Amino acid sequence: xxxxxxxxxxxxxxxxxxxxxxxxxxxxxxxxxxxxxxxxxxxxxxxxxxxxxxxxxxxxxxxxxxxxxxxxxxxxxxxxxxxxxxxxxxxxxxxxxxxxxxxxxxxxxxxxxxxxxxxxxxxxxxxxxxxxxxxxxxxxxxxxxxxxxxxxxxxxxxxxxxxxxxxxxxxxxxxxxxxxxxxxxxxxxxxxxxxxxxxxxxxxxxxx
Length: 208
Known about the structure:
about 210 residues; alpha+beta; CATH 2.40.50.140; five-stranded antiparallel sheet
């Protein structure tokens, strides 16, 4: 249900009077997160889905009266069914961050938020094969009315860059860098690493 609602919101806030704003938001996102192109088969679809979640759930929109689209939908949704209003409220409180996987058992993933420090237990109904404790990844957490679940997209960072990332994140959090800027920086580093042929991840992530 949450994902279907996201699809409807995407359609609403990407067409008609919102079309130009959505195009501007796309340019802004990829300027900040690292540009990918149609021929980036391994990256393009996931990064586009990540952009749409960011546009709907985080970015203030001039076309929506300066509100983030999800908040605009909440404010203008008084006539919607009660279940849908609850889902809109849940989407308005999603949490995107950099997580470290602590453990996994029976589709429940135990996570540590490396930016905010909180711990989360997250239900993942999709296949978790290949996911291992210690993995660092960007993801979005959503309350679906019963459990915390993941959004649609993940960005798994290369294991070789793990120590470099941990040191860097610890330093910039102390310096006061915002969560979005931390995530955008790491996304750019991931795209650079991908462009360079998936080699030397620690060096790529160490270089600013």
